[in-house]
User: Fold these one by one.
Assistant:
Number 1:
Amino acid sequence: MENFEFFTPTRVIFGRNTHLKVGTIVKEYGFKKALVHFGGSSAKNSGLLDAVCDALKAEGIEYVTLGGVQANPTLAMAEKGIGLCLKEKVDFILAVGGGSVMDSSKCIADGAGNPEANVWDYFLHKDAPAKALPVGVVLTLSASGSEMSASCVITNEKTGLKRGFNSVTHRPLFSICNPELTYSVGRFQTGCGTVDIMAHTLERYFSSSRDTALTDRIAEGLLKSVIEAGKIADMEPDNYEARATLMWAGSLSHNGLTSAGRSFVMQVHQLEHELSGMYPRIAHGAGLSALWPSWARFTCPADVNRFAQYGVNVWNLDMDFHNPMKTALAGIQATEDFYKSLGMPVTLKELEVEPDRIEEMAEKCTNFGKRTLPGIRELGKAEMVKIYSMAMG
Amino acid sequence: MENFEFFTPTRVIFGRNTHLKVGTIVKEYGFKKALVHFGGSSAKNSGLLDAVCDALKAEGIEYVTLGGVQANPTLAMAEKGIGLCLKEKVDFILAVGGGSVMDSSKCIADGAGNPEANVWDYFLHKDAPAKALPVGVVLTLSASGSEMSASCVITNEKTGLKRGFNSVTHRPLFSICNPELTYSVGRFQTGCGTVDIMAHTLERYFSSSRDTALTDRIAEGLLKSVIEAGKIADMEPDNYEARATLMWAGSLSHNGLTSAGRSFVMQVHQLEHELSGMYPRIAHGAGLSALWPSWARFTCPADVNRFAQYGVNVWNLDMDFHNPMKTALAGIQATEDFYKSLGMPVTLKELEVEPDRIEEMAEKCTNFGKRTLPGIRELGKAEMVKIYSMAMG
């Protein structure tokens, strides 16, 4: 087990009807004026936005609203939010939505807390925010884990670069997680979320660190539960237990629990960021789904037993002791089949990615020759090209 | 899954040599003067206390020391600490030790933060602390989980009453967890710790709540890891991986993770508190070990399948589908055998408990007729007497 720090200060308020408490909770912390940040029309049409605003009003908390965050949230939207916060003297940001809204809110919080800084510099690791406005969350999508995580990913719409950075300022102060709010999430987005949750745990699980039996077992148990719940939510969108499992697993997958004692680099996420950075129409979860099986088949020969362990402990496969590769590949196949069963793409072809842009994606993923990605197999540009090509199908 | 709040703001700094960072970490928070609180001579003799004090000195942090905390920490010691904090104008408490030292520190923090209050009133639920001094931890024992928990248990040496209460003020600000510091923990204390960690998870696992598959799997994985690591640490006290697993499992067992979505009452802990309250020579872990098998056999008929699940998923037993009780009882027996293999008592007779004091223990455990303990089987005085009697052996 490697040395680690575990710090998840976010207060999670989980369960039915919890979103109705948002006014009381914000009031507890003594905030005066909120930016209520949200996405498209669904928060409006479902009545959630009104319910949240009413709850704030009832406690005498002022607010301004800013909607319109889209998948792969942009720097332009965040800059708009920063301007609004400064103009309106907002002291608190309330994200009502999923990963895009939360990440946009975190970026706004960094910017509004440091008006002198250029917020994009943080994403280029040229600078780091010393402070930020506090962020609270009313979660509407089980996927990103951003509701408990230190991460924040933004796309610079001018350059097509999608970049993330981790900061303690990104841990939300509180997250209100009501699984009922995800009943209305459609099949495709539910599938994307399930893949994203699994990916957050899988990227930590397939690490070259050893001696992490406890963390392994937690990760394996979480993956089994997500697979079980993902299947049920796909058939019965309003199954509370399945939606609750996905939501809680989403938070635990990205808060540090499933990486305690391990080093890891999220290789598939990095490969996917270039994909959806270049093709903003591609949903993050769909990109992960299309890339993971190829990443896994490419990586597997370098640690066959790890992939076999995954097949046995997550997919209940019998271990082929004479030919562990068989078990390893069967586990990858089971994952691919599961993603397909949810209606997710498992090749880049299905996403209409042009083969002649692979070179450019790989180049961007190396940050223009400035980095390789360590892991079970280290990825340089040649390896990235190989994985993207395998994923073309 | 039931509604829940999950809030574990403690920053955990885990791994080799981490205790040497204590000065830097305390300085980060800007504290000026610490009470360094510790137990017996082992912290002194091992050189740990000197190392901690040197680290504080190196950063210019003043401190006073208070040692002598014993197992089942007393109100008298806490009152001494409160007086010292007020006299010395301490702004921070550093607990160097295990559960007893941490709980004594938490009680001191409550008292010193509220000089006008009678701190024992908190334990009688007559009052609650609105604030407290911050507490940091250098952990030397894997057992109580107090390093991440909201709990604090103190014995009033005048009345023999052992009482605990949970409070957000009890969550340590940070906990430095170096498994190497537990190499010197002897066989008996290591066994007590292993039992205590398992008990924290078992008490949450055997709940009457349903639909907690994710939390179940996390709990089962944790228990398997603790059993594995407990056996190894018993044979090889300086096995880093085993000591690390016990330490991290200890923190996760009592921070809320293994109860997310469940109601629970720690029945065996309550029964044990009366035991070691009345016989302060009995170590908490030994008391739990002596009581759990009888509690389990008494409770099992009310939820046979739950105990069978435990046998299958934790002890790798084959399910007897025609006679689940057989599997259920085999799981309890496996636990008892494991505790015995660690040199732990599995009856009260081994602890030289007098049968004619059972009545009094049960009476105290009902808080003199004022409460029953809900659970898979609700415990009133008659049921408590029955369990204590079964445990006599």
Number 2:
Amino acid sequence: MITNINIREKYDKITEYWTPKIIGELNGQHVKLAKVKGDFLWHSHDNEDELFIVYKGTLYIEFRDKTVTVPEGQLIIVPKGVEHRPYTNGEEVWIMLLEPKEILHTGNVIDEKTVTNLEWI
Amino acid sequence: MITNINIREKYDKITEYWTPKIIGELNGQHVKLAKVKGDFLWHSHDNEDELFIVYKGTLYIEFRDKTVTVPEGQLIIVPKGVEHRPYTNGEEVWIMLLEPKEILHTGNVIDEKTVTNLEWI
């Protein structure tokens, strides 16, 4: 069904950190929302570029040669193959992600943070 | 170069209506921003789904069987092949678009609103 999607209402349904939820699908990709807080793991995606849009708070993404600060209202695209580690400065941060459907959010790394069956909300 | 992109600052560079500007690229798709006002034309995209995120104002999308209202903070995905006509209620509306690079924003229709060489900002 073609309908409008209220991003804020979708965020209200998210209760876990670092667990992206799917809100839409287009051209073989998922639009996902996540609440994140604290540290994530170093990883990369061999074949997929990844888009992060920050809706609330400030996201930091550490690369091997620098750290990029992405405040609310900004976005960043991480090209395939580039090692990165998202984290927040202790605050809860709301992000929108866009990436191919088959991707694992932890990329080339499987650990306790890896969620393999993403849910729609 | 991997860097943060300030969405608001990009909008400030847009001076024409219905003329999407590219701000990013991932997985063969462009992330685009546009300011729109008034009526657009009926069209569809044979092979590409299209994502609209509304950043300011209220976007309306007319379909053959209904009209969907998409206010600020909401998004809509128009599946490939579905005829649609975006418009605004006279106000200036700011949208983000995500669609494959090779797409024409007027889809299967070429008219005076068609912009064939989209610019990066």
